[in-house]
Design brief:
Helices cover 27% and strands 28% of the residues. With 339 residues, it is α+β, with helices and mostly antiparallel strands. The protein folds into three domains: 5-70, Uridine Diphospho-n-acetylenolpyruvylglucosamine Reductase, domain 2 (2-Layer Sandwich), CATH 3.30.43.10; 75-227, 2-Layer Sandwich (Uridine Diphospho-n-acetylenolpyruvylglucosamine Reductase, domain 3), CATH 3.30.465.10; 235-338, UDP-N-acetylenolpyruvoylglucosamine reductase, C-terminal domain (Uridine Diphospho-n-acetylenolpyruvylglucosamine Reductase, domain 1). α6 (199-205) packs across α7 (213-227). It is globular and about 60 Å long.
Length: 339
């Protein structure tokens, strides 16, 4: 039975650890419960926000409306062929828990995305990715509830219009759907990807010559743990900003002025390392009031214990302005800001 709480603290429901309140709060464990609360006359005209792991949101103030906490759980194999297995996960499953499930079963494809915070349902919205692999590379289809019709609809890889930390659900379909489940197409004969970042170096340090998917996952976990703070210890949302993409002409201009600029070629130009840009502006390790840029990774903004969401937001704006002033490049938050 649905339980509606009033004036609910969201401190333990967001990884920044911000002590903001929601006017109303409920947890849903099934589609029927979700539809019931959406049909409730009391909340029909209320603002609503779906919250999963709370790792991709910055609350700058109390939420005036209804928070619906996604607790849909479950993982099952729905199909397989000679080379691939199709695994369906409910959207409330923790992403890293899902990755560990796949590794335990020998299903390859998601190991490079180990330890990304958040829930399975947030993955397609953001087209999450790490160490050379993105959600779109392993995505098969998803099922979503149309919030206007309250009917379930399926979206293919093409339907989702995946881009760099982008999807149809962040653009033309924004706030129109609730992602119910995601089905992944994973390899039964995995070929590991160790070419990106420091994975190969970490594997060498682990004395691993012929890595398995578990070895790659362990390496990614070690790398991420060494430079990204644990939200349970120090409030943060992981990478706060996207890596900006610029044209080849803009990159050549930038390289002439800053020969050591960190960038990676893409199909449309170059992707700049936002962490490097921020660090060059002197923010890495800088503490401003109760928040700051992390000492090991400038891209991560942290709450040192008593920060408000607005403090962190003002810090983010100051970082954006200084990067633009120095490089004429605009960095955009990856985190959703409720302001």
């Amino acid at each position: 039975m649905l339980q509606i709480e009033q004036n609910k603290s969201l401190k333990k429901y967001n990884t920044f650890g911000l002590d903001v309140n929601a006017d109303y709060f409920t947890s849903v464990n099934s589609i029927d419960e979700l539809i019931a609360v959406l049909k409730d006359d009391h909340f029909f005209d209320s603002s609503k926000m779906f919250l999963g792991g709370g790792s991709n949101v910055l609350f700058t103030k109390d939420y005036r409306g209804l928070i619906i906490h996604n607790c849909l759980n479950g993982i099952e194999v729905v199909n397989r062929d000679a080379n691939f297995v199709y695994v369906k996960a409910e959207s409330g499953e923790g992403w890293h828990d899902f990755v560990l499930y796949c590794i335990d079963k020998g299903f390859g494809g998601v190991e490079n995305m180990s330890l990304i915070p958040g829930s399975v349902g947030a993955g397609p919205m953001q087209n999450i990715g790490a160490y050379g692999v993105e959600m779109k590379d392993v995505f098969y289809e998803l099922e979503a509830l149309n919030l206007a019709t309250l009917q379930l609809e399926k979206f293919s890889n093409t339907d989702c219009k995946f881009g760099y930390r982008e999807s149809v659900f962040k653009n033309e379909k924004k706030d129109q759907y609730f992602i119910v489940s995601v089905t992944f197409r994973l390899s039964l004969n995995p070929t590991v990807n160790t070419t990106y970042g420091a994975i190969q170096q970490q594997l060498s340090a682990m004395n691993v010559e012929y890595p398995t998917i578990k070895d790659v996952s362990d390496a990614v976990i070690a790398i991420r743990s060494s430079k990204l703070p644990n939200p349970a210890v120090l409030g943060n949302s992981g990478s706060f900003f996207k890596n900006p993409e610029i044209s080849t002409n803009d990159y050549e201009r930038l390289q002439n002025e800053f020969p050591n600029v960190h960038a990676y070629p893409t199909n449309n130009g170059y992707k700049l390392a936002a962490g490097w840009l921020i660090e060059q502006c002197g923010w890495k390790g800088k503490v401003v009031g109760n928040c700051g840029s992390h000492k090991d990774q400038a891209l991560v903004l942290v709450n040192y214990g008593n920060a408000t969401g607005d403090e962190i937001y003002q810090l983010a704006l100051a970082i954006q302005d200084s990067v633009f002033e120095k490089f004429q490049v605009r960095i955009i938050p990856e985190v959703n800001v409720y302001a």
